[in-house]
Amino acid sequence: MLQISFLRQHTEKAIAGLNKRHFPNAAQVISEVLAIDDERRHTQAELDKANARLNALSKEIGILIKAGKHQEAETAKAETLELKTTSKHLSDKLAALEEELTRKLYTIPNIPHESVPDGRSAQDNEVVFQHGSLPTLDSNALPHWDLVKKYDIIDFELGNKITGAGFPVYKNKGAKLQRALMNFFLDRATQAGYVEIQPPSLVNEASGYGTGQLPDKDGQMYYIAADGLYLIPTAEVPITNLYRDMILRKEDLPIKNVGFTPCFRREAGSWGAHVRGLNRLHQFEKVEIVQIQTPDKSYEALQEMCQYVKSLLIDLELPFRMVKLCGGDMGFTAALTYDFEVYAAAQQRWLEVSSVSNFETFQATRLKLRYRDENNKTQLLHTLNGSALAFPRVVAALLENHQTSQGIRLPKVLVPYTGFDVID
RNA sequence: AGAGGGAUGGCUGAGUGGUCGAAAGCGGCGGUCUUGAAAACCGUUGUGGGGCAACCCACCGGGGGUUCGAAUCCCUCUCCCUCUGCCA
Asked: In angstroms, how far is B64 C1' from A88 CA?
Protein backbone atom coordinates (compact mmCIF):
# COMPACT_ATOMS: atom_id res chain seq x y z
CA MET A 1 0.00 0.00 0.00
CA LEU A 2 1.28 3.45 -0.89
CA GLN A 3 1.39 6.08 1.83
CA ILE A 4 -1.20 8.79 1.51
CA SER A 5 1.41 11.37 2.54
CA PHE A 6 3.54 10.31 -0.44
CA LEU A 7 0.62 10.74 -2.82
CA ARG A 8 -0.12 14.16 -1.35
CA GLN A 9 3.46 15.38 -1.66
CA HIS A 10 4.50 13.70 -4.91
CA THR A 11 1.28 13.58 -6.87
CA GLU A 12 2.84 14.06 -10.32
CA LYS A 13 5.56 11.50 -9.68
CA ALA A 14 2.97 8.96 -8.55
CA ILE A 15 0.81 9.49 -11.63
CA ALA A 16 3.82 9.19 -13.95
CA GLY A 17 4.84 5.97 -12.21
CA LEU A 18 1.39 4.45 -12.51
CA ASN A 19 1.26 5.39 -16.16
CA LYS A 20 4.50 3.48 -16.70
CA ARG A 21 2.68 0.44 -15.37
CA HIS A 22 -0.23 1.15 -17.71
CA PHE A 23 -2.46 1.42 -14.66
CA PRO A 24 -5.75 2.74 -16.07
CA ASN A 25 -6.99 6.27 -15.21
CA ALA A 26 -4.09 6.98 -12.88
CA ALA A 27 -4.66 10.73 -12.65
CA GLN A 28 -8.34 10.29 -11.92
CA VAL A 29 -7.84 7.59 -9.30
CA ILE A 30 -5.20 9.66 -7.51
CA SER A 31 -7.36 12.76 -7.49
CA GLU A 32 -10.25 10.75 -6.04
CA VAL A 33 -7.99 9.44 -3.31
CA LEU A 34 -6.71 12.91 -2.49
CA ALA A 35 -10.27 14.25 -2.30
CA ILE A 36 -11.23 11.55 0.21
CA ASP A 37 -8.09 12.30 2.20
CA ASP A 38 -8.95 15.98 2.23
CA GLU A 39 -12.37 15.30 3.65
CA ARG A 40 -10.90 12.82 6.09
CA ARG A 41 -8.55 15.41 7.54
CA HIS A 42 -11.30 18.01 7.70
CA THR A 43 -13.57 15.58 9.54
CA GLN A 44 -10.76 14.62 11.89
CA ALA A 45 -10.23 18.28 12.84
CA GLU A 46 -13.93 18.77 13.57
CA LEU A 47 -14.11 15.61 15.62
CA ASP A 48 -11.04 16.59 17.63
CA LYS A 49 -12.65 19.91 18.44
CA ALA A 50 -15.86 18.30 19.69
CA ASN A 51 -13.92 15.75 21.74
CA ALA A 52 -11.71 18.44 23.27
CA ARG A 53 -14.80 20.29 24.49
CA LEU A 54 -16.33 17.06 25.77
CA ASN A 55 -13.15 16.19 27.68
CA ALA A 56 -13.03 19.64 29.23
CA LEU A 57 -16.67 19.42 30.35
CA SER A 58 -16.17 15.97 31.89
CA LYS A 59 -13.25 17.21 33.88
CA GLU A 60 -15.28 20.19 35.04
CA ILE A 61 -18.20 17.99 36.08
CA GLY A 62 -15.89 15.89 38.21
CA ILE A 63 -14.61 18.96 39.98
CA LEU A 64 -18.14 20.38 40.50
CA ILE A 65 -19.43 17.13 41.99
CA LYS A 66 -16.50 16.98 44.38
CA ALA A 67 -17.24 20.55 45.42
CA GLY A 68 -20.87 19.65 46.06
CA LYS A 69 -22.19 21.95 43.31
CA HIS A 70 -24.72 19.46 41.96
CA GLN A 71 -26.89 22.03 40.29
CA GLU A 72 -24.06 23.31 38.13
CA ALA A 73 -22.90 19.79 37.38
CA GLU A 74 -26.35 18.97 35.97
CA THR A 75 -26.21 22.03 33.73
CA ALA A 76 -22.84 20.93 32.39
CA LYS A 77 -24.15 17.40 31.83
CA ALA A 78 -26.94 18.80 29.70
CA GLU A 79 -24.41 20.49 27.48
CA THR A 80 -22.59 17.22 26.80
CA LEU A 81 -25.68 15.63 25.26
CA GLU A 82 -25.57 17.50 21.98
CA LEU A 83 -21.79 17.27 21.82
CA LYS A 84 -21.96 13.52 22.21
CA THR A 85 -24.33 13.25 19.26
CA THR A 86 -22.03 15.42 17.15
CA SER A 87 -18.99 13.43 18.19
CA LYS A 88 -20.65 10.10 17.40
CA HIS A 89 -21.79 11.34 14.02
CA LEU A 90 -18.34 12.67 13.15
CA SER A 91 -16.50 9.58 14.29
CA ASP A 92 -18.80 7.37 12.22
CA LYS A 93 -18.14 9.60 9.25
CA LEU A 94 -14.40 9.49 9.88
CA ALA A 95 -14.39 5.71 10.13
CA ALA A 96 -16.28 5.46 6.83
CA LEU A 97 -13.84 7.84 5.12
CA GLU A 98 -10.83 5.98 6.47
CA GLU A 99 -12.23 2.69 5.27
CA GLU A 100 -12.96 4.12 1.85
CA LEU A 101 -9.45 5.57 1.67
CA THR A 102 -7.79 2.30 2.63
CA ARG A 103 -9.96 0.36 0.21
CA LYS A 104 -8.93 2.69 -2.62
CA LEU A 105 -5.27 2.62 -1.64
CA TYR A 106 -5.32 -1.18 -1.71
CA THR A 107 -6.20 -1.06 -5.40
CA ILE A 108 -3.19 1.09 -6.35
CA PRO A 109 0.03 -0.76 -7.22
CA ASN A 110 3.53 0.27 -6.23
CA ILE A 111 5.33 3.09 -8.06
CA PRO A 112 8.06 1.60 -10.29
CA HIS A 113 11.69 2.52 -9.69
CA GLU A 114 12.93 5.12 -12.18
CA SER A 115 15.14 2.56 -13.91
CA VAL A 116 12.18 0.29 -14.76
CA PRO A 117 11.83 0.12 -18.55
CA ASP A 118 8.64 1.16 -20.32
CA GLY A 119 6.54 -1.60 -21.74
CA ARG A 120 3.32 -3.54 -21.57
CA SER A 121 4.22 -7.20 -21.47
CA ALA A 122 6.97 -9.78 -21.05
CA GLN A 123 8.15 -9.00 -24.59
CA ASP A 124 9.24 -5.55 -23.43
CA ASN A 125 11.42 -6.86 -20.61
CA GLU A 126 15.13 -6.11 -20.75
CA VAL A 127 17.67 -8.93 -20.77
CA VAL A 128 20.51 -7.53 -18.68
CA PHE A 129 22.75 -10.57 -18.39
CA GLN A 130 23.11 -13.96 -19.99
CA HIS A 131 25.38 -16.82 -19.00
CA GLY A 132 26.25 -20.19 -20.53
CA SER A 133 25.78 -21.51 -24.04
CA LEU A 134 22.49 -23.07 -25.04
CA PRO A 135 22.96 -26.83 -25.35
CA THR A 136 22.16 -28.55 -28.62
CA LEU A 137 20.61 -31.92 -27.95
CA ASP A 138 20.35 -35.07 -30.01
CA SER A 139 17.28 -35.39 -32.15
CA ASN A 140 16.03 -38.16 -29.84
CA ALA A 141 16.30 -35.95 -26.73
CA LEU A 142 13.22 -35.98 -24.53
CA PRO A 143 11.32 -33.24 -22.69
CA HIS A 144 11.40 -33.65 -18.91
CA TRP A 145 7.86 -35.05 -18.68
CA ASP A 146 9.06 -38.05 -20.68
CA LEU A 147 12.38 -38.31 -18.86
CA VAL A 148 10.69 -38.54 -15.45
CA LYS A 149 8.72 -41.55 -16.72
CA LYS A 150 11.76 -43.16 -18.30
CA TYR A 151 13.70 -43.03 -15.01
CA ASP A 152 10.63 -43.38 -12.75
CA ILE A 153 11.47 -40.33 -10.64
CA ILE A 154 8.33 -38.19 -10.77
CA ASP A 155 4.80 -39.53 -11.18
CA PHE A 156 2.08 -37.14 -12.29
CA GLU A 157 -0.56 -39.87 -12.60
CA LEU A 158 -0.15 -40.92 -8.97
CA GLY A 159 -0.51 -37.29 -7.94
CA ASN A 160 -3.74 -37.08 -9.94
CA LYS A 161 -5.01 -40.14 -8.13
CA ILE A 162 -4.36 -39.04 -4.57
CA THR A 163 -4.86 -35.27 -4.94
CA GLY A 164 -5.35 -33.87 -8.42
CA ALA A 165 -3.58 -32.27 -11.36
CA GLY A 166 -0.54 -30.21 -10.46
CA PHE A 167 0.45 -32.26 -7.42
CA PRO A 168 3.26 -34.57 -8.59
CA VAL A 169 4.66 -37.43 -6.56
CA TYR A 170 8.47 -37.57 -6.39
CA LYS A 171 9.94 -41.05 -6.22
CA ASN A 172 13.30 -42.80 -6.00
CA LYS A 173 16.11 -40.54 -7.17
CA GLY A 174 13.55 -37.84 -7.89
CA ALA A 175 12.62 -37.67 -4.19
CA LYS A 176 16.28 -37.71 -3.22
CA LEU A 177 17.03 -34.92 -5.64
CA GLN A 178 14.36 -32.77 -3.95
CA ARG A 179 15.93 -33.39 -0.58
CA ALA A 180 19.38 -32.62 -1.99
CA LEU A 181 18.21 -29.33 -3.50
CA MET A 182 16.70 -28.27 -0.20
CA ASN A 183 19.93 -28.88 1.69
CA PHE A 184 22.11 -27.39 -1.04
CA PHE A 185 20.10 -24.17 -1.25
CA LEU A 186 19.80 -23.78 2.52
CA ASP A 187 23.51 -24.42 3.08
CA ARG A 188 24.47 -21.91 0.43
CA ALA A 189 22.16 -19.24 1.84
CA THR A 190 23.52 -19.83 5.33
CA GLN A 191 27.05 -19.36 3.98
CA ALA A 192 25.88 -16.10 2.42
CA GLY A 193 24.75 -14.83 5.82
CA TYR A 194 21.04 -15.68 5.76
CA VAL A 195 19.49 -16.91 9.01
CA GLU A 196 17.46 -20.07 8.48
CA ILE A 197 13.78 -19.95 9.34
CA GLN A 198 11.26 -22.77 9.20
CA PRO A 199 7.88 -21.04 9.18
CA PRO A 200 4.35 -22.46 9.19
CA SER A 201 2.81 -23.30 5.81
CA LEU A 202 -0.51 -21.73 6.79
CA VAL A 203 -0.99 -18.06 7.61
CA ASN A 204 -3.82 -15.94 8.94
CA GLU A 205 -5.64 -13.16 7.14
CA ALA A 206 -3.54 -10.36 8.66
CA SER A 207 -0.40 -11.90 7.19
CA GLY A 208 -2.02 -12.07 3.77
CA TYR A 209 -2.72 -8.35 3.96
CA GLY A 210 0.75 -7.62 5.32
CA THR A 211 2.63 -8.74 2.25
CA GLY A 212 -0.07 -7.77 -0.25
CA GLN A 213 -1.56 -11.10 -1.36
CA LEU A 214 -4.85 -9.85 0.08
CA PRO A 215 -7.23 -8.41 -0.78
CA ASP A 216 -6.74 -8.64 -4.55
CA LYS A 217 -5.16 -12.08 -5.00
CA ASP A 218 -7.23 -14.12 -2.56
CA GLY A 219 -8.36 -16.36 -5.39
CA GLN A 220 -4.76 -17.45 -5.96
CA MET A 221 -4.42 -18.91 -2.48
CA TYR A 222 -5.93 -22.07 -1.06
CA TYR A 223 -8.18 -21.16 1.85
CA ILE A 224 -9.13 -23.25 4.88
CA ALA A 225 -12.56 -21.81 5.67
CA ALA A 226 -13.05 -23.70 8.93
CA ASP A 227 -10.05 -21.98 10.49
CA GLY A 228 -9.76 -18.82 8.41
CA LEU A 229 -6.25 -19.74 7.26
CA TYR A 230 -4.48 -19.58 3.90
CA LEU A 231 -1.91 -22.01 2.50
CA ILE A 232 1.16 -19.96 1.70
CA PRO A 233 1.93 -19.24 -1.97
CA THR A 234 5.56 -18.50 -1.00
CA ALA A 235 7.68 -18.35 2.14
CA GLU A 236 7.79 -14.59 1.61
CA VAL A 237 4.43 -14.36 3.37
CA PRO A 238 5.23 -15.98 6.73
CA ILE A 239 8.85 -14.80 6.85
CA THR A 240 8.21 -11.14 6.04
CA ASN A 241 5.24 -11.12 8.43
CA LEU A 242 7.56 -12.23 11.22
CA TYR A 243 8.47 -8.55 11.36
CA ARG A 244 4.95 -7.12 11.22
CA ASP A 245 4.28 -4.34 13.78
CA MET A 246 7.93 -4.06 14.69
CA ILE A 247 10.28 -1.18 15.22
CA LEU A 248 13.74 -2.59 14.57
CA ARG A 249 17.01 -1.18 15.79
CA LYS A 250 19.35 0.06 13.11
CA GLU A 251 22.15 -2.20 14.35
CA ASP A 252 19.96 -5.26 13.72
CA LEU A 253 19.77 -4.43 10.02
CA PRO A 254 19.87 -5.79 7.48
CA ILE A 255 17.64 -8.71 8.37
CA LYS A 256 18.58 -11.64 6.14
CA ASN A 257 16.38 -14.73 6.37
CA VAL A 258 16.06 -17.87 4.31
CA GLY A 259 13.36 -20.50 4.44
CA PHE A 260 12.37 -23.70 2.69
CA THR A 261 8.63 -24.27 2.32
CA PRO A 262 6.10 -25.90 0.09
CA CYS A 263 4.24 -23.29 -1.96
CA PHE A 264 0.60 -23.63 -2.91
CA ARG A 265 -0.98 -21.83 -5.86
CA ARG A 266 -4.43 -22.24 -7.27
CA GLU A 267 -3.56 -20.43 -10.51
CA ALA A 268 -7.09 -20.96 -11.77
CA GLY A 269 -7.63 -20.98 -15.49
CA SER A 270 -4.04 -20.93 -16.69
CA TRP A 271 -3.52 -24.48 -17.84
CA GLY A 272 -2.49 -25.58 -21.29
CA ALA A 273 0.19 -27.22 -23.43
CA HIS A 274 2.93 -24.79 -22.35
CA VAL A 275 2.46 -25.64 -18.70
CA ARG A 276 3.01 -29.38 -19.02
CA GLY A 277 4.98 -31.41 -16.56
CA LEU A 278 6.89 -29.39 -14.00
CA ASN A 279 6.43 -26.05 -15.74
CA ARG A 280 3.51 -25.03 -13.53
CA LEU A 281 2.19 -26.78 -10.43
CA HIS A 282 -0.33 -26.30 -7.63
CA GLN A 283 2.24 -27.37 -5.07
CA PHE A 284 5.98 -26.93 -5.39
CA GLU A 285 8.99 -26.52 -3.16
CA LYS A 286 11.04 -23.38 -2.94
CA VAL A 287 13.80 -21.79 -0.93
CA GLU A 288 13.18 -18.10 -0.49
CA ILE A 289 15.53 -15.35 0.68
CA VAL A 290 14.18 -12.23 2.39
CA GLN A 291 15.98 -9.03 3.32
CA ILE A 292 14.84 -6.03 5.32
CA GLN A 293 17.03 -2.99 4.89
CA THR A 294 17.07 0.78 5.32
CA PRO A 295 15.89 2.79 2.28
CA ASP A 296 19.35 4.12 1.45
CA LYS A 297 20.81 0.61 1.17
CA SER A 298 17.96 -1.45 -0.25
CA TYR A 299 19.11 -1.31 -3.87
CA GLU A 300 22.55 -2.53 -2.85
CA ALA A 301 20.75 -5.39 -1.11
CA LEU A 302 18.83 -6.11 -4.32
CA GLN A 303 22.09 -6.33 -6.29
CA GLU A 304 23.59 -8.59 -3.65
CA MET A 305 20.59 -10.92 -3.85
CA CYS A 306 20.84 -11.04 -7.65
CA GLN A 307 24.55 -11.87 -7.43
CA TYR A 308 23.68 -14.63 -5.04
CA VAL A 309 21.06 -16.14 -7.34
CA LYS A 310 23.51 -15.93 -10.26
CA SER A 311 26.10 -17.87 -8.29
CA LEU A 312 23.61 -20.66 -7.63
CA LEU A 313 22.69 -21.00 -11.29
CA ILE A 314 26.33 -21.00 -12.40
CA ASP A 315 27.08 -23.80 -9.93
CA LEU A 316 24.07 -25.76 -11.14
CA GLU A 317 25.64 -25.60 -14.62
CA LEU A 318 22.50 -24.20 -16.19
CA PRO A 319 22.41 -21.59 -18.97
CA PHE A 320 20.38 -18.65 -17.72
CA ARG A 321 19.54 -15.04 -18.27
CA MET A 322 18.66 -12.18 -15.94
CA VAL A 323 15.72 -10.06 -17.04
CA LYS A 324 14.62 -6.66 -15.77
CA LEU A 325 10.84 -6.53 -15.83
CA CYS A 326 9.13 -3.65 -17.59
CA GLY A 327 6.45 -1.51 -15.97
CA GLY A 328 3.57 -3.47 -17.43
CA ASP A 329 4.92 -6.90 -16.43
CA MET A 330 5.87 -6.19 -12.82
CA GLY A 331 3.92 -7.56 -9.89
CA PHE A 332 1.51 -5.33 -8.00
CA THR A 333 3.71 -4.81 -4.96
CA ALA A 334 7.17 -4.50 -6.56
CA ALA A 335 9.15 -1.35 -7.34
CA LEU A 336 11.83 -3.23 -9.28
CA THR A 337 12.01 -6.90 -10.23
CA TYR A 338 14.66 -9.07 -11.85
CA ASP A 339 13.60 -12.48 -13.11
CA PHE A 340 16.07 -15.29 -13.61
CA GLU A 341 15.23 -17.75 -16.35
CA VAL A 342 16.96 -21.02 -17.13
CA TYR A 343 16.98 -22.53 -20.58
CA ALA A 344 15.26 -25.88 -20.87
CA ALA A 345 16.91 -27.35 -23.95
CA ALA A 346 14.39 -30.00 -24.93
CA GLN A 347 11.44 -27.60 -24.74
CA GLN A 348 13.66 -24.86 -26.14
CA ARG A 349 12.07 -22.46 -23.69
CA TRP A 350 13.22 -20.09 -20.97
CA LEU A 351 11.72 -20.99 -17.59
CA GLU A 352 11.52 -18.55 -14.68
CA VAL A 353 13.20 -20.02 -11.60
CA SER A 354 13.62 -16.87 -9.53
CA SER A 355 12.11 -13.45 -9.15
CA VAL A 356 14.03 -10.96 -7.04
CA SER A 357 12.22 -7.77 -6.02
CA ASN A 358 12.54 -4.63 -3.97
CA PHE A 359 9.16 -3.59 -2.59
CA GLU A 360 10.56 -0.42 -1.03
CA THR A 361 8.01 0.72 1.60
CA PHE A 362 4.97 -0.81 -0.14
CA GLN A 363 4.80 -3.84 2.16
CA ALA A 364 6.31 -2.03 5.16
CA THR A 365 3.40 0.43 5.15
CA ARG A 366 0.87 -2.37 5.66
CA LEU A 367 3.21 -4.28 7.94
CA LYS A 368 4.00 -1.20 10.06
CA LEU A 369 7.62 -2.29 9.79
CA ARG A 370 9.95 0.51 10.85
CA TYR A 371 13.31 1.39 12.36
CA ARG A 372 14.67 4.30 14.37
CA ASP A 373 16.89 6.67 12.46
CA GLU A 374 19.78 8.72 13.88
CA ASN A 375 17.28 11.32 15.14
CA ASN A 376 15.34 8.58 16.94
CA LYS A 377 12.45 9.05 14.52
CA THR A 378 10.62 6.01 13.20
CA GLN A 379 11.00 5.42 9.46
CA LEU A 380 9.54 2.74 7.22
CA LEU A 381 11.95 0.03 6.10
CA HIS A 382 12.35 -1.54 2.69
CA THR A 383 11.50 -5.22 2.17
CA LEU A 384 13.02 -7.44 -0.51
CA ASN A 385 12.77 -11.05 -1.45
CA GLY A 386 13.77 -13.55 -4.07
CA SER A 387 13.55 -17.22 -4.92
CA ALA A 388 16.78 -19.09 -4.34
CA LEU A 389 15.45 -21.15 -5.95
CA ALA A 390 12.13 -22.69 -7.00
CA PHE A 391 12.66 -26.43 -7.45
CA PRO A 392 10.47 -27.75 -10.29
CA ARG A 393 11.82 -25.73 -13.19
CA VAL A 394 15.39 -26.19 -11.97
CA VAL A 395 14.69 -29.93 -12.04
CA ALA A 396 13.11 -29.66 -15.49
CA ALA A 397 16.17 -27.86 -16.88
CA LEU A 398 18.63 -30.21 -15.15
CA LEU A 399 16.85 -33.22 -16.65
CA GLU A 400 16.52 -31.83 -20.15
CA ASN A 401 19.94 -30.20 -20.47
CA HIS A 402 22.04 -32.90 -18.89
CA GLN A 403 20.44 -35.96 -20.47
CA THR A 404 22.82 -38.45 -22.03
CA SER A 405 22.47 -41.94 -23.37
CA GLN A 406 23.77 -43.20 -19.99
CA GLY A 407 21.30 -41.20 -17.94
CA ILE A 408 21.08 -37.74 -16.46
CA ARG A 409 24.36 -36.25 -15.26
CA LEU A 410 24.06 -34.13 -12.11
CA PRO A 411 26.11 -30.98 -11.51
CA LYS A 412 29.15 -31.52 -9.25
CA VAL A 413 27.82 -29.32 -6.44
CA LEU A 414 24.82 -31.57 -5.94
CA VAL A 415 26.66 -34.89 -5.77
CA PRO A 416 27.66 -34.57 -2.08
CA TYR A 417 23.98 -33.98 -1.36
CA THR A 418 22.45 -36.70 -3.54
CA GLY A 419 25.09 -39.36 -3.05
CA PHE A 420 24.89 -40.21 -6.79
CA ASP A 421 26.08 -38.36 -9.89
CA VAL A 422 23.75 -39.80 -12.47
CA ILE A 423 20.03 -40.57 -12.65
CA ASP A 424 19.57 -43.78 -14.56
C1' A B 1 -12.55 -30.63 24.18
C1' G B 2 -13.83 -29.23 29.79
C1' A B 3 -12.53 -25.91 34.21
C1' G B 4 -9.98 -21.72 35.83
C1' G B 5 -6.58 -17.45 35.16
C1' G B 6 -4.65 -13.77 32.02
C1' A B 7 -3.59 -9.82 27.76
C1' U B 8 -1.02 -2.61 30.19
C1' G B 9 4.65 1.38 26.89
C1' G B 10 11.26 -1.70 23.91
C1' C B 11 11.00 -5.49 28.31
C1' U B 12 9.26 -6.78 33.52
C1' G B 13 5.19 -5.08 36.10
C1' A B 14 1.60 -1.62 39.35
C1' G B 15 -2.93 0.47 38.52
C1' U B 16 -11.06 -1.62 39.95
C1' G B 17 -14.79 5.00 37.81
C1' G B 18 -12.30 11.39 37.44
C1' U B 19 -5.65 15.99 36.72
C1' C B 20 -3.86 8.18 34.32
C1' G B 21 -0.78 8.35 28.41
C1' A B 22 -0.50 5.52 32.72
C1' A B 23 3.77 4.10 39.18
C1' A B 24 8.27 1.47 39.78
C1' G B 25 12.33 -1.29 37.87
C1' C B 26 15.21 -2.75 33.60
C1' G B 27 16.82 -1.18 28.90
C1' G B 28 17.81 3.22 25.50
C1' C B 29 19.54 8.34 24.90
C1' G B 30 22.03 12.94 26.99
C1' G B 31 25.05 14.76 30.99
C1' U B 32 28.30 14.90 35.67
C1' C B 33 32.51 12.16 37.45
C1' U B 34 36.93 9.34 34.97
C1' U B 35 43.19 9.08 31.16
C1' G B 36 39.24 5.64 29.18
C1' A B 37 35.48 2.34 30.73
C1' A B 38 32.42 0.44 34.62
C1' A B 39 29.80 1.93 38.95
C1' A B 40 27.20 5.97 41.08
C1' C B 41 24.31 10.32 40.47
C1' C B 42 21.16 13.95 37.48
C1' G B 43 18.04 14.60 33.35
C1' U B 44 15.37 12.44 29.36
C1' U B 45 12.74 8.45 26.85
C1' G B 46 5.53 5.26 23.66
C1' U B 47 2.84 5.13 18.76
C1' G B 48 -0.31 7.34 15.30
C1' G B 49 -3.41 11.49 13.39
C1' G B 50 -4.52 16.95 12.85
C1' G B 51 -2.19 21.97 13.08
C1' C B 52 2.90 26.91 10.67
C1' A B 53 2.96 26.74 15.89
C1' A B 54 1.21 26.88 20.91
C1' C B 55 -1.41 22.83 21.25
C1' C B 56 -5.39 19.34 20.36
C1' C B 57 -7.23 14.28 19.41
C1' A B 58 -6.95 8.85 19.43
C1' C B 59 -4.70 4.46 21.41
C1' C B 60 -3.80 0.09 28.02
C1' G B 61 -5.34 -7.44 22.83
C1' G B 62 -9.92 -6.46 18.71
C1' G B 63 -15.10 -4.87 18.47
C1' G B 64 -19.54 -3.12 20.96
C1' G B 65 -22.08 -1.14 25.42
C1' U B 66 -23.03 1.55 30.41
C1' U B 67 -21.52 6.63 32.24
C1' C B 68 -20.94 13.68 32.18
C1' G B 69 -16.30 10.70 32.54
C1' A B 70 -13.60 3.77 31.36
C1' A B 71 -6.96 0.83 31.46
C1' U B 72 -10.66 0.19 35.50
C1' C B 73 -17.75 -1.89 35.02
C1' C B 74 -20.85 -5.06 31.29
C1' C B 75 -21.21 -8.02 26.55
C1' U B 76 -18.56 -10.34 22.65
C1' C B 77 -14.40 -12.06 19.73
C1' U B 78 -9.23 -13.40 19.37
C1' C B 79 -4.90 -15.01 21.54
C1' C B 80 -1.87 -16.83 25.74
C1' C B 81 -1.06 -19.61 30.45
C1' U B 82 -2.33 -23.59 34.25
C1' C B 83 -4.92 -28.19 35.37
C1' U B 84 -7.86 -32.36 33.23
C1' G B 85 -8.79 -35.20 28.62
C1' C B 86 -7.07 -36.66 23.75
C1' C B 87 -2.93 -37.07 20.53
C1' A B 88 2.17 -37.02 16.48
From this structure: 14
